[in-house]
Amino acid sequence: MDRNILRACREDPRRTSTDIQLSVTSLNEPVPLRRTIRRRLQVAGLHGRRPVKKPLGCFSVTSIGPLKRIVGTLYRYVYEDILENTMRPWARANLGRSWVFQQDNDPKHTSGHVANWFRRRRVDLLEWPSQSPDLNPNEHMWEKLERRLKGVRASNANQKFAQLEAGWKSIPMTVVQTLLDSMPRRCQAVIDAKGYPTKY
């Protein structure tokens, strides 16, 4: 287990303990605690990384939506503002009136305050399992974006966001289509794995 933790960190030094935890988990071994991973890295002389705040982005089968930069902490009120002033106008302009919104079960996404916004705005929500990293299409879009920007340096946060935004907009729709077409297989793989990690 220790070798796998160190290998995962050396492969990508920017990985967080959560990312390493997901990558080293196997069926035959217990899931290491993030605290344990951090200790193992510290003993090996490797320094931890703080997780980077990702911007929020949306996409559909027909188009890629805007990327919204998160400044400060993403509270439920900030999330509601993004839904109201970024996501909803884009969805109405690109998807018409009949569409379903998918989000993960982050507490700020599922708070009563945000749930009330979805009711008031008559936005249909797709029910989502509580823990499903294998199923979140946005996570796979982030992977694609990170690969596109690997090795690209930025001198400040504004330049980094501009790079992310340009990279996000340049993802071909064929990539989105392939990802969405894979969702039935992903769902079946999660069912077959009975909650354990899948190849996705």
Describe the structure.
The protein is mostly helical and 200 residues long. 53% of the residues lie in helices and 6% in strands. The protein folds into two domains: 2-43, no CATH class; 52-200, Nucleotidyltransferase, domain 5. The chain contains ten helices and four strands; from the N terminus they run H-H-H-E-E-H-E-H-H-E-H-H-H-H. A two-stranded antiparallel ribbon has the order 1-2. A two-stranded parallel ribbon has the order 3-4. Helix 2 crosses helix 3 (34-43). 13% of the residues are buried.
Task: Give a quick precis of the structure.
This protein is mainly alpha-helical and 200 residues long.
Poorly predicted ranges (pLDDT <50, ≥5 residues)? Answer: none
Number of domains: 2
Give me the CATH fold name of the largest domain: Nucleotidyltransferase, domain 5
Helix content: 40-55%
**CATH class identity of the largest domain:** Alpha Beta
**Distance from first to last alpha carbon:** 21 Å
Q: What's the Cα radius of gyration? A: 18 Å
The total count of strands amounts to 4
Q: Work out the helix count.
A: 10
The helix-strand sequence is HHHEEHEHHEHHHH
The largest beta-sheet arranges its strands as 1-2
Average pLDDT for all residues: 85
Query: Which shape, going by the Cα principal axes?
Result: globular
Q: By CATH's scheme, which homologous superfamily of the largest domain applies?
A: Ribonuclease H-like superfamily/Ribonuclease H
CATH architecture of the largest domain: 2-Layer Sandwich
